[in-house]
Amino acid sequence: MSERCGKFAPLLSAWADDELTGKERGNVAAHLRACRICREEVEGLARLRVLLRSLPVRRVPAGLLTAPGSAAGEPAPGDRRAAGERHGRRVAGRAAATFAVLAGLVGGAAFSLGGPPDGPAPAVPVPMDLYAVDHLVRTAGGPVSTPVLVGAPGGPAGER
């Protein structure tokens, strides 16, 4: 995303849900006409919306809608829908917290298992003569017929 997209990124979800004011809607529409990346993001949000709406609706068990300490079957204060939404938020919060803890544990284990190698690293010979020729060819702007390699036979003495 470009720097310009950063201004519109927070509005794309509201655009997909048709929740923008007239001025915001016009600005986002103009940006979407010019920005392929943001158009693809809005298309992805639309696909997600369709997928979410295709999920089956589940009924909340009656036991979850009772107030703590009240008799079974007695509805909690407020309507049933609000209680179900509160329960859904609690479950989502607990799931997010569980995921964060698991991610931390996995990351910590990976960090502690991946330590420095045992012993010194092996020496790797570097073909400096090839690098020197490549550098000469690339910086001179054309092929070099007889490159002078530093430290090579016939090259400047004592330089390597």
Key attributes of the depicted protein:
mainly alpha; 6 helices; 160 residues; 56% helix
How would you explain this protein's 3D organization?
The structure is a single chain. The two termini are 47 Å apart. The protein is built from six helices and no strands. Helices cover 56% and strands 0% of the residues. The model has no long low-confidence stretch (mean pLDDT 75). By secondary structure, the protein is mainly alpha-helical. It has a domain of 104 residues.
Q: Work out the radius of gyration.
A: 32 Å
Give the overall shape, derived from the CA principal axes: flat
Strand content: under 5%
Structural class: mainly alpha
Low-confidence stretches: none
What is the end-to-end distance?
47 Å
Query: What is the succession of H and E elements?
Result: HHHHHH
Helical content class: 55-70%
Number of strands: 0
Query: DSSP helix count?
Result: 6
Major sheet summary line: none
The chain-level mean pLDDT equals: 75
What is the multimeric organization of the chains shown? Answer: single chain
Would you kindly provide a brief summary of this structure?
The protein is mainly α. It is 56% helix and 0% strand. It has helices spanning 3-8, 12-16, 22-34, 36-53, 80-113, 128-140.
